[in-house]
């Protein structure tokens, strides 16, 4: 399935791209509302994750534009505003659901699954084709009881075939379904992935033509010969602790690569502190810049386990509202919050967790 992420915060966007990629979704990313609109017009998506605060065209207006053009794809809003009025505005604009930043990973994935089920209902959570068992919940492929070690692209390729078993897919159509805009590979790439997938299926006991070549047209699953099918017990494979840990590690890697952005935003707040201490005020532009930095920190830090850091950033954002008057008490409070935030960002990602908070078991019971 293909998801469009419209998010201008690179740290959050990369996190979502990594997280959803690990769940076998194909992800395109747009860093402003206009690019999001252009991608939505050009490609067919199963879901759009849409940030509210975007440059050029904000999330609410983009959602309204999509709905006014009869665009029926589900839209999940990502917002740092937790008030009822902001939620109502988003839903009235045509959004199907919303998640408040910093979002809980398990909740986000659950809400995505719900919206995808609605769009594709009725949908099987497990699909069997001959001796193949594909579990859409855990993103696992099993053949004759053997768990196949597939790459994300190989899994999505197999998923495409089993969900559309009567359709012949040309290489160009497969590219459209399974590769993002930025990747843009050649058709030979599809041939290589088909070859690799066939080899892994063959190693598990599948016939070499399990994925059939329809010459001159493309590929499809070979029709089942019912007379030759035996009853085979195929065990369930529960998602492992290792899988959860891998996801946590993947998000930690994203943090290590992009944490400089959070430190740059902290520096903006520290500079605002110096200005306040020296002049007792911030001009309108300085206040706006500092408030935006605090807003971005509040929305992203919690994703990486900095719950306290996210709370501190949210408090700083509130102190920087346009109507707030910077008196001595407020300035002292601001300085204290920035100091505490600085100490939080010296900690490693997920240091506050004493258990696996990222429970990525894809349990369909929501």
Helices, strands, pairings?
Blueprint lengths: L1 E5 L3 H13 L3 E5 L2 H10 L4 E5 L7 H10 L6 E5 L4 H9 L4 E4 L4 H16 L5 E4 L2 E4 L4 E4 L2 E2 L4 H12 L7 H8 L8 H17 L7 E4 L3 E4 L19 H39 L4 H17 L6 H13 L8 H17 L22
Parallel strand pairs: 1-2, 1-3, 3-4, 4-5
Antiparallel strand pairs: 6-7, 7-8, 8-9, 10-11
Helix pairs in contact: 1-9, 2-3, 6-8, 7-8, 9-10, 9-12, 10-11, 11-12
Brief sketch in words of this structure:
The chain has 366 residues and is an alpha/beta fold.
Architecture overview:
- This protein is an alpha/beta fold.
- The protein has three domains: 2-120, Response regulator (Rossmann fold); 126-228, Winged helix-like DNA-binding domain superfamily/Winged helix DNA-binding domain (Arc Repressor Mutant, subunit A); 242-344, Four Helix Bundle (Hemerythrin (Met), subunit A) (Up-down Bundle), CATH 1.20.120.160.
- The protein has helices at 10-22, 33-42, 59-68, 84-92, 105-120, 152-163, 171-178, 187-203, 241-279, 284-300, 307-319, 328-344; strands at 2-6, 26-30, 47-51, 75-79, 97-100, 126-129, 132-135, 140-143, 146-147, 211-214, 218-221.
- The strands form three sheets. Strands 2-1-3-4-5 form a five-stranded parallel beta sheet, sandwiched between helices. Strands 6-7-8-9 form a four-stranded antiparallel beta sheet, with helices on one face.
- Helix 2 runs parallel beside helix 3 (59-68), helix 9 (241-279) runs antiparallel to helix 12 (328-344) and helix 11 runs antiparallel to helix 12.
- The protein is elongated.
- Residues 226-240 and 354-366 have low confidence and may be disordered.
């Amino acid at each position: 399935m293909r998801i469009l992420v419209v998010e201008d915060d690179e740290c959050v966007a990369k996190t979502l791209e990594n997280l959803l990629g690990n769940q076998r979704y194909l992800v395109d990313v747009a860093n402003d509302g206009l690019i999001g609109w252009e991608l939505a017009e050009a490609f067919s998506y199963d879901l759009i994750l849409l940030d509210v605060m975007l440059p050029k065209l904000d999330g609410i207006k983009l959602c309204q534009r999509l709905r006014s053009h009869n665009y029926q794809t589900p839209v999940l809003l990502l917002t740092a505003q937790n008030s009822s009025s902001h939620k109502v505005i988003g839903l009235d604009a045509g959004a199907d659901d919303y998640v408040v930043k910093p979002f809980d990973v398990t909740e986000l994935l659950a809400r995505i699954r719900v919206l995808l089920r609605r769009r594709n209902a009725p949908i099987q959570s497990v699909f069997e084709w001959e001796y193949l068992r594909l579990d859409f919940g855990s993103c696992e492929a099993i053949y004759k009881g053997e768990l196949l070690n597939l790459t994300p692209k190989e899994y999505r390729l197999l998923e495409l075939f089993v969900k559309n078993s009567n359709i012949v897919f040309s290489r160009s159509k497969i590219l459209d379904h399974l590769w993002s805009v930025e990747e843009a590979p050649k058709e030979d790439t599809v041939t290589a992935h088909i070859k690799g997938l066939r080899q892994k299926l063959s190693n598990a006991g599948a016939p070499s033509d399990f994925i059939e070549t329809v010459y001159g047209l493309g590929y499809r699953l070979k029709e089942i010969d019912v007379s030759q099918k035996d009853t085979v017990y195929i065990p369930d494979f529960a998602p492992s602790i290792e899988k959860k840990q891998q996801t946590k590690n993947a998000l930690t890697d994203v943090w290590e690569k992009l944490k400089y952005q959070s430190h740059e935003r902290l520096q903006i707040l520290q500079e605002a502190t110096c200005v306040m201490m020296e002049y007792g005020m911030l001009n309108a532009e300085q206040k706006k810049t500092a408030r935006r930095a605090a807003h971005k920190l509040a929305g992203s830090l919690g994703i990486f386990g900095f719950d306290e850091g996210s709370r501190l950033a949210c408090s700083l954002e509130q102190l920087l509202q346009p109507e707030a008057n910077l008196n001595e008490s407020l300035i002292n409070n601001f300085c204290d919050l920035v100091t505490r935030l600085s100490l939080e960002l010296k900690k490693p990602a997920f240091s506050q967790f004493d258990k696996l908070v990222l429970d990525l078991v894809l349990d369909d019971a929501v």
